[in-house]
Specification:
The complex is a heterodimer of chains A (318) and B (252). With 318 residues, chain A is an alpha/beta fold. In chain A, 28% of the residues lie in helices and 28% in strands. Chain A is built from 10 helices and 17 strands. In chain A, the strands form 3 sheets. A 9-stranded mixed sheet of chain A has the order 9-8-7-10-6-1-4-5-11, with helices on both faces. Chain A has a 5-stranded parallel sheet with strand order 14-13-15-16-17. A two-stranded antiparallel ribbon of chain A has the order 2-3. The longest helix of chain B has 17 residues, at 35-51. Chain B is globular. Chain B contains 6 helices and 15 strands. Chain B starts with a strand and ends with a helix. The chains are: A alpha/beta (318), B alpha/beta (252). The interface between A and B is large, with 102 and 91 residues. Flavin-adenine dinucleotide sits between chains A (97, 135, 208-210, 234-236, 248-253, 265-267, 269, 271-272, 275, 285-288, 291, 304-306) and B (13-14, 116-117, 141, 177).
Chain lengths: 318, 252
């Protein structure tokens, strides 16, 4: 028997897919034992959203205006307090911008073991998980000492649709004791629209750090033009200021589902895959045969993008 | 403002990894600065320039790469750098966090910066574990800071490009994703100067016991490309095959 507590995150009035994935994951874990799935949702607007978490047996709602949209210190403290009151065996937290502020701190404060970058969890014989390291280049199986732990789950660990559907969980209010906080939430801002909406494009050429320098972007743009495609990129290209934020694909950028996604010099870190793995056809070119991008690609070529780009451009134009 | 930056080396992501037992085969592995720690250092240097004050860079280990990384930090503007103790052999974020915490605990830092994550943080994020141990405010996925009053205005990034602004009182720990400006370069000559500056100090530390509450039972390279058609041949063959794929997808 295992009792599971799911941390359901929300921002801007929406519960994230990652949270629904965890409900589905938790349901799967308790299906073979007679455990219980509790989900908690904390903060402004929690009550209004709680009904959507019906896939859990109990929804613990901590409505409060004291934390703004999300308060890293405050949410972690409230979650820690909840762990000490409910004593769950397993906590599932999404490995997201929100979960990153909650999981490690709650684990340390609750003196619970923590496994990060988790792809899957099992409770059949002890507590075990499979995790990804080195940007997805390595997989490890881990065993937890003891019978309680927190797991920080990578996105895609279960089906969000499954976690969203059905259920008749009981909604329960919890007391939220917000401690003195050194952090106060001020405001949220939405991204500015870019010149191109990469989520609406049928064909994307996406470049990563393999492009090496800003000067080489022109060549990739030339290929994209020849393909009738728009140019997207991994995060480092945006961070360098070589392309605008509106072109970023992935966890902290945009999710895209084009007909064709051509990835050039992108390693395929989990944060990138999150934003493009559902593309209809994925073609990857990378000089490293171990690059995790080949794990989601439908077609791959191991080689140098600077050899490949002019060949394909010529073929398209010729 | 007195700033600490916690820096880590990670296996060079472009290297081919090999497994030896339950760990990487580290004999010939090259290491590079964790990319997010490079951003943490840059944000720290910019804040130091904004406010005056000092910056100390910390790293664990004795490898040449660690020393090189700290000399580079000094060359870029860190006032001093400290190389802590011996290597931590295991993949153990708790041991790293405890080592950093012991080193900085009594030094009165206003701000502790580190990269939001590292590729080997199997059992937690180091900056967040340090914050928990010190019992001070923490924030991950930071993409910029500005001095404001006694504290900092901090921007945190969520997803889909959504960001939020926070007011943070000090001391605090921030896990930096991206500095407000791209990390600076520094001339090799400056790094050489840093090597002779005496600003790098080796500190012997008694390593805390690794928490050891999560054990690796198997490590493997995932079957990559299993589901993919890998195109054979040279670039011309590759371009031809990709052209066919584009045609049959109906996009050219
Ligand atoms: C909270 C958070 C959010 C994030 N959000 C995102 C996000 O939204 N999007 C995103 O992309 N990342 C995101 N990241 C960053 C992510 O972790 C990776 O750092 C990033 O995706 C790596 O980008 P890359 O593949 O371009 O670079 P690298 O990982 O450095 O890969 C470059 C690749 O290019 C190959 N290469 C080099 N030269 C050549 C050549 N000449 N020919 C062929 N191949 C070559 C190399 O073999 C390598 O595989 C996020 C990280 C965090 C912590
Ligand atoms: N031209 C350069 N001059 C100075 N520092 C650099 C340069 N190129 C890279 N660096 C930085 O120095 C570190 C080591 O670089 P490298 O010599 O390329 O291994 C990297 O983390 C870079 O941030």
């Amino acid at each position: 028997m295992a009792n599971i507590l799911v941390y359901a995150e929300h921002l801007n009035g929406e519960i994230t897919d990652a949270s629904f994935e965890l409900i589905a994951l938790a349901r799967g874990l308790v299906s073979s034992t007679d455990g219980n799935v509790e989900a908690t949702i904390i903060g402004t607007g929690a009550i209004a959203l709680a009904d959507q978490l019906g896939g859990a047996d109990t929804i613990l709602v901590g409505e409060t205006d004291a934390l703004g949209e999300f308060n890293p210190q405050g949410h972690a403290a409230v979650f820690t307090d909840l762990i000490s009151r409910r004593q769950p065996d397993i906590c599932l937290v999404p490995y997201t911008s929100i979960g990153m502020d909650v999981a490690s701190v709650a684990a340390a404060a609750s003196d619970l073991p923590l496994a990060s970058y988790c792809l899957s969890v099992d409770i059949q014989s002890g507590l075990t998980a499979t995790c990804q390291l080195y940007g997805g280049k390595v997989e490890v199986d881990v065993e937890i000492d003891g019978d309680r732990a927190i797991f920080a789950m990578l996105s895609g660990c279960a089906s969000a649709d499954q976690g969203r559907s059905g259920g008749a969980g009981v909604v329960e209010s919890i007391d939220v004791a917000v401690p003195d906080l050194g952090i106060s939430f001020l405001s949220l801002s939405e991204p500015e629209g870019g010149d191109v909406d990469i989520t609406a494009e049928e064909v994307l050429v996406a470049i990563g750090r393999g492009i090496e320098s800003e000067d080489n972007i022109e060549e990739a743009q030339g290929l994209a033009d020849a393909m009738g495609a728009a140019l997207g990129a991994s995060r480092p290209i945006i961070d360098q200021g070589w392309l605008p934020k509106s072109r970023q694909v992935g966890k902290s950028g945009l999710s895209v589902k084009p007909k064709v996604y051509l990835a050039l010099g992108i390693s395929g870190a989990p944060e990138h895959l999150e934003g493009m793995r559902d593309s209809a056809t994925i073609i990857a070119v990378n000089s490293d045969p171990q690059a995790p991008i080949f794990g989601v690609a439908h077609y791959g070529w191991v080689g140098d993008i600077f050899d490949f780009m002019p060949e394909l451009t010529d073929r398209l134009e010729g | 403002m007195k700033i600490a930056v916690l820096m880590r080396v990670v296996p060079d992501p472009v290297e081919e990894l090999e497994i030896e037992g339950h760990d990487l085969d580290r004999d010939f592995l090259g290491y590079v600065l964790n990319e997010f720690d490079d951003h943490a250092l840059e944000e720290g240097l910019l804040l130091k320039e904004d406010t005056g004050g000092s910056l100390t860079a910390y790293a664990i280990g004795t490898a040449d790469e660690v020393e090189q990384m700290l000399h580079t930090a000094i060359a870029k503007g860190a006032d001093e750098a400290k190389m802590l103790g011996e290597e931590i052999e295991a993949i153990d974020a708790h041991a790293q966090a405890a080592t950093f915490t012991n080193a900085i605990r009594d030094s009165g830092f206003d701000l502790i910066l580190s990269g939001v994550q590292a590729a080997d943080e199997l059992d937690g994020q180091v900056p967040m574990l340090v914050a928990a141990a010190l019992g001070i405010p923490h924030m991950s996925v930071v993409v910029g800071t500005t001095p404001q009053g006694e504290g900092l205005r901090v921007t945190k990034e969520y997803w889909g490009g959504i960001t939020a602004e926070y007011q943070v009182t000090l001391p605090a720990v921030l896990g930096v994703q991206t500095a407000r400006e791209a990390p600076r370069y520094v001339a090799v000559a400056r790094i050489k100067q840093a090597q002779d500056s005496g600003a790098l100090e080796s500190v012997d530390l008694v390593q805390p016991d690794p928490a050891g509450r999560i054990r690796i039972t198997e490590m493997r390279l995932p079957d990559i490309g299993d589901g993919a058609e890998m195109i054979e041949g040279d670039e011309e063959a590759a371009a031809e095959r990709v052209y066919e794929i584009l045609s049959s997808a109906g996009v050219v």
